[in-house]
Amino acid sequence: MKKSFLVVVFLIGYVSFSCAQPKSILSEVDKLEATAKIWGFLKYYHPNVANGSRNWDEQLFQICQETEKVKTKDEFSKVIDKWILSLGEIKKQHVDSISKNDCFLKNLNFSWFKNKSLFTNELSKKLEFIKENKFYGQNFYVAFQDSNPNISPLQFTNEIKYGKFDWADKKMRLLALFKYWNYVEYFFPYKYQMDQNWDKALREILPKIINPKTELDFHLAMRELSVKLNDSHASIGTGKMFDKFGDKFVPADFKIIDKKAVVINLKNDSLANLSDLKVGDVILAVDGKSIEAIISENSKYVEGSNQMAILRNFYWAIFNGKSDSIQIDYTRQGQKESKFIRRYLYHDLRAKTAEKDKWKFLNKDVAYVNLGEVTEDDVPFIMDTVKNSKAIIFDLRNNALGTNYLISEYLNPEPKEFVKFLDADLNSPGRYIWRQEIEKCGKKNPDYYKGRVVILVNEVTQSHGEYSAMSLQTAPKAVVIGSQTAGADGGVVKFEIIRGFVTQFTSYGVFYPNKKETQRKGIIPDIKVNPTILGIQEGRDEILERALIYTAISEK
């Protein structure tokens, strides 16, 4: 009996103690993460905000002051609820009439409404009500400049232009972050493909925005966030970046192969000769640090949809700097050596622009067309001249100049579907809509080209280059040869987040007619060829060589 009494007393005391514990305290990151999402959601969805009737930046500054004072979920929800009430009444709207078959919903995410550690049930229901009775009409903050977003992509409109951005002002840093995060949240069509969940990216970057040690740290944090898009189109560039990476260049271009930097081109022959740089030199280390270590340390600052594109963009993080020279460890003809090479300001580099052939016959049966040099005015003459060849090699490794539609008219016997577009739904930000019409190329042409069509690609092939490859692939005897392309297809929206922070990202989706993705994956070669160090040292174009082998074999 005595033992039972003690157990009852203990349980009562334990329950009393538990009930007396304070409610969980929200951290600053908890509150700011939630505020960023709510502020962006209301900006694009609340009927009395999306119409532009309020200074929404100022509203953010005010609500951050209020939420800074609170500690618990209930207190936080009460402040947010009061804020939403102050925005005015929301009337019930008509039911969305767009067919689900026309919608692309992989980016749409409002699961955070139900975060019970941050929001009361009442606030969650209120956010859901706003979503269901969202703003309809011309959103004040986002628009298509033209009725065809393929011509004039998405634009962010009517944002307040600040004459000066003071990085030391916390509220301005948060404004920059919140604006950018929500632009991507609602208007980046490939958000669902990111390596890191975008919600987690916000939470991870917030401490670096809240308490940067220096101005450079803030700039680097913003660039790091942009790199998380995994989009070869996306980056944030500011002059402050030169403080870390420098503004002086070496007079050569490089390709990363097997964790080494191989010289593939000299930007300026005379300056390269002063440093005794030669095509085929294999750089192992810079200032005592291996190429592999430099890549590992700086990968969070270098953009790209896939690894090939990232390595293509890494040259400046490896070789740029503030000093006039760097020490390199390298190999040439099997001998390992070390020396200093000079760096130059870009305008002093006077990068050469050697003339390249627009087209030529590689032999009596095979024509070569460099689409990086050919304009629409050139196309009729070229295609008429090569029409009796057994194969045409179209080189997209320098991208293209808008000739794909015209060339396709010579290659196809009839119009061919080659692209399906995906556009942002401005009435339901975060949702996308498939365009009804599938884009076609070519025309009815009984005298179309009957030979082999070979398309050369590599990691430099990006955006319009990839789009051009998709149209050329429709030719009856087309084959793609090369390596993985940059994986960034679609129009680009360019904008200034806040003064001095210029950025861009892909703004609409480009897919094959069967909805197969090109973003990140790129144009997949039918025959894969990756240049080798030995091939570069021997001055060979291994991708073009493989194309010639293919044309020779295919004719047998």
On the 0 to 100 scale, the average pLDDT is 93
- Report the uncertain regions: 1-21
- Compute the number of strand runs: 24
CA-CA gap between termini: 100 Å
Continuous helix count: 19
> Beta-sheet strand percentage?
15-25%
Structural class: alpha+beta
Give a quick account of the main beta sheet: strands, pairing sense, barrel closure. 6 strands, antiparallel
Overall shape:
globular
- Radius of gyration from the CA trace? 28 Å
Helix content: 25-40%
Descriptive account of the structure:
With 556 residues, the chain is of the alpha+beta class. The strands form 6 sheets. Strands 6, 7, 8, 9, 10 and 11 form a 6-stranded antiparallel sheet that branches. α16 packs parallel to α17. The longest helix is centred in the first third of the chain and has 19 residues, at 2-20. The radius of gyration is 28 Å and the shape is globular.
Helices and strands in order:
Elements: H1 2-20, H2 28-45, H3 56-69, H4 73-86, E1 103-104, H5 121-132, E2 142-144, E3 154-156, H6 170-187, H7 198-210, H8 215-227, E4 235-237, H9 242-245, E5 248-249, E6 252-257, E7 260-266, H10 269-274, E8 282-286, E9 289-290, H11 291-298, H12 307-312, H13 315-319, E10 325-332, E11 335-342, E12 344-345, H14 346-349, E13 359-361, E14 366-370, H15 379-385, E15 391-395, H16 404-411, E16 416-424, E17 432-434, E18 439-441, E19 452-457, H17 464-472, E20 478-482, E21 492-498, E22 501-506, E23 509-511, E24 527-528, H18 533-537, H19 542-554
Parallel strand pairs: 14-15, 15-19, 19-20, 20-24
Antiparallel strand pairs: 1-17, 2-3, 4-22, 5-12, 6-7, 7-8, 8-9, 8-10, 10-11, 13-14, 16-17, 16-18, 16-23, 21-22
Helix pairs in contact: 2-3, 2-6, 2-7, 6-7, 7-8, 16-17
